[in-house]
Amino acid sequence: MDSDSLYIVNAASREEVNVQHPFGVGIHGWFRIVGVSNGNICFKFSRERDDTRLLVWNPTTQCSREISDPHRDYGRSFFPVYGFGHVPNSDAYTVIHMCKRDIADAYVFFSRYCSRRSTWFHCVDCLPGVEKIDPNSVFNNGQAYWITGTGDSYATPKSVLCYSVEDESFSEVSIPVGAIYTIHNLLTHKEKVALLAHTHNEFGYVAAIWHLNEDANGNRILEQYCRFASRSIRENPILFVDDNLLLLVNNSKERELLVNYRYRELVLTEYIEHGTRNLLVRRAWRYPETPHPITVRSTLKYFAGMFPV
Fold first, then answer.
1. Using CA atoms, how far apart are residues 255 and 249, in angstroms rounded to an integer?
2. Torsion angles phi and psi, residue 71, rounded to 5
3. Tens of pLDDT along the chain (309 residues)?
């Protein structure tokens, strides 16, 4: 197994196919997955430390487009986040970048790339009062979503931030107190944007899914869809593909690195090619000489107690 490699994993058969990404990063370089949409994969990569670029690649056609990274042009900046997805009813895609020029800034610097015009559009001051935006993002139906944080080290989730590509506008949905656990991820579940909140304690592993819905007045709210717990599996993160639960099993002593997705030792996202649902897995270990095996399994066998609220 390579220390920094890319795999496509069939979600049904769990067959793994090693994919050669279209760029060479060398011993001083690195890459990460920004997002996946309509079979295209957006990467952020660097061949020489901080000389970063973006690249959109279709592994089926082997076509790719390299895009300048606005974060590289800003010099020193803080909390860079990205989003990637296709515009509804179109073959055009958009890349979103946000950051703060200074850690104490009250505003966010926003940039959006449009594939049709091959141009970045910039907005200097937006989102007043937003302290920090988490890098984990979801793109669904022409809208990008992130989690905002507050408190000490910005560890307390505050809201789900939404950007509409069509309206070119932002909106926020407050995260209920009951949805604040230890770790939070955004994902798509049952064709909806969902918040996965999970934690482990002396009683075992607890997780809940909250769907982003609309109330009777058309206001967006987070509503709990289901909650489950297990005493047998405690320190493994959970991600979703379609309506099935997937468990990432890591038998190494460094399993806590996988519990906290901020370490980015692993990226798992949905990938659809010719109607086949697959997973796109990126493996990058802190100590390349000792990579640890990871397997992907359906957790329906383990979490038989999952129930609607």
1. 9
2. -60, -35
3. 444 567 776 655 667 777 777 777 777 778 888 988 888 889 998 887 678 889 999 887 888 999 999 887 766 678 889 999 998 888 899 999 999 888 788 889 999 999 998 999 988 788 988 888 998 889 999 999 999 998 777 778 999 999 999 888 999 999 999 898 888 888 888 889 999 888 776 666 778 889 999 999 999 999 998 887 766 544 455 555 556 555 554 433 333 333 333 333 445 555 555 556 666 665 554 444 444 445 554 444 444 333 333
Yes or no: say if 133 and 81 are a contact pair by the CB < 8 Å rule: yes
Whole-prediction pTM: 0.78
* Structural domain for 40, as ranges: 6-174
Q: Is 45 domain-assigned?
A: yes
Has residue 105 been placed in a domain?
Answer: yes
In the chain, the number of structural domains is: 1
Q: Do the domain assignments include residue 168? A: yes
